Amino acid sequence: MKNVGDYNYLIVGGTTKAATTSLFAYLTDHPTICAATYKETRFFLSNDYPLPSKYRYNGDAEEYAHLFPNCAETQLRMESTPDYLYCEKALERIAAFLPQAKLVFSLREPISRLISWYRFAKQIGRLPEMMSFDAYVELLFAALERNGGREEQHLQTLWQGCYTIYLERYFNHFGPARIHILFYEELAAQPATVMAKLCNFAGIDADFYRDYVFEVTNRTEKMRNSKLHRKYRDYRFRLRQWTHDKPIIHNPLRTIRRTIEPIYLRLNTQASEKIQMSEQTRYRLMDYYQRDIESLAELIGKPLPWKSLQKSNS
Q1: Angle between helices 226-243 and 110-123 (to 10 degrees)
Q2: Segment 162-185, tens digit of pLDDT
């Protein structure tokens, strides 16, 4: 009988708010891939990482198999936990327990990512509805100054946009041949091209995506009632954790969700506000990220598709 580490894995990480949910859905549909029973297993995160999970490594890596109950021997097993990028303990555990794993990291231009997080934090009720984006950035820089203990996830977003320090650890440990970098902006603009390159990296057939319909999932919306949405998200999370390994229940519920959720979102969303950002805030963020942008391009060996960070274009 095979152990967990005997299988081939594709581990999707990357920054949050960088289309990892859509990417998980695209990969799940590929017949060569067997996806974990839910996205963001968070299994390999350190035990004190500030995100909940049903399964967390606690001395027995074989528990990871519970997340892949119906996989064929020859299928490529895939899961997606964006925060693996930021967690050094996750790196160590993946290296120790999944020796044949390949890793994919999805990145997003850090200022647009901050804007998306600002919207998302309001959506889930983490920020006051009247807080401006400039005030949110001030809050993040204040958190950076504190930087003594764990911050809530929506207060870590400033420094988590400096990707190089996190990626360097993976490149040094796994080597560039086992790591694939893709960009949110290119996935949104040319999904078929991006997925073809990813398939070549993973060693699976790229023709599957030739006529594939790429739908965006988990889009950040402005909610009419953020408290209701927070309760909805919490209920959905708990229900998924309970049913994920019970396909006779989980699969019908997933079908029902795909039917009902669009209706719910139409009822509880409204037109997104245009985010106002002062020139002072914009330049402050550009200055903060500039050195990391240069280091990241050097690390991956190619220019980044983030023209908006050039001051001459502002």
Answers
A1: 100
A2: 999 999 999 999 999 999 999 999
pTM: predicted TM-score of the whole model, two decimal places: 0.82
Identify the segments of the chain with pLDDT beneath 70: 147-150, 218-230, 232-238, 240-242, 244-247, 250-251, 253-254, 257-258, 261-273, 308-314
Structure tokens given for 210: 């030739």
